[in-house]
Write a structure and sequence with these properties.
By secondary structure, the protein is an alpha+beta fold. It contains two helices and six strands. The longest helix is centred in the N-terminal third of the chain and has 40 residues.
Length: 146
């Protein structure tokens, strides 16, 4: 009988420990999301044409010159949020818009277009991305960046 009470006591303590641990994890998650959201919107461009205009693309490249790795644009899109923290769906539309740039190894390149949408957006938007040059990226207006 003593072993049974001891076993129930250990089980009870384990359940309490798990419950407290899960409650504290939930509390810390929600507060970190709020903190991240505030910081994320500070990384939104003040320029209304940023990303939305082929003359002002988001520069996510540079891997040809060793300044950024080849998959950097995946990290960027993974960190992009809608205006209320919504998850953004990203679809590559294709290449467009050739440009010349004498500082580049091939003298220029093509921009890529991506369609961005999230739950609640009336119409998806198209953003232009330069995968050859890298500048610290910002979120286009109406979006946030982790």
């Amino acid at each position: 009988m003593g072993d049974t009470n001891k076993g129930l006591s250990v089980l009870k303590n384990l359940i309490i420990f798990i419950l407290i641990g899960s409650l504290s994890a939930c509390a810390s998650t929600s507060s970190s999301k709020q903190r991240l959201s505030e910081e994320s919107f500070a990384m939104t461009s003040n320029d209304s044409s940023y990303g939305f205009n082929q003359d002002n693309p988001i520069h996510l490249g540079g891997f040809l010159r060793g300044t950024k790795y080849e998959g950097a644009h995946y990290d960027y899109f993974d960190g992009l949020l809608g205006p209320h923290g919504e998850r953004v769906m990203v679809e590559r539309v294709g290449s467009c818009c050739g440009f010349e740039d004498s500082s580049m190894p091939f003298g220029g390149g093509m921009l890529d277009r991506y369609r961005l949408s999230y739950e609640g957006i009336k119409k998806p938007v198209i953003v232009y991305v330069n995968l050859y040059k890298f500048e610290k990226p910002m979120a286009p207006q109406g979006f946030a960046l982790l």
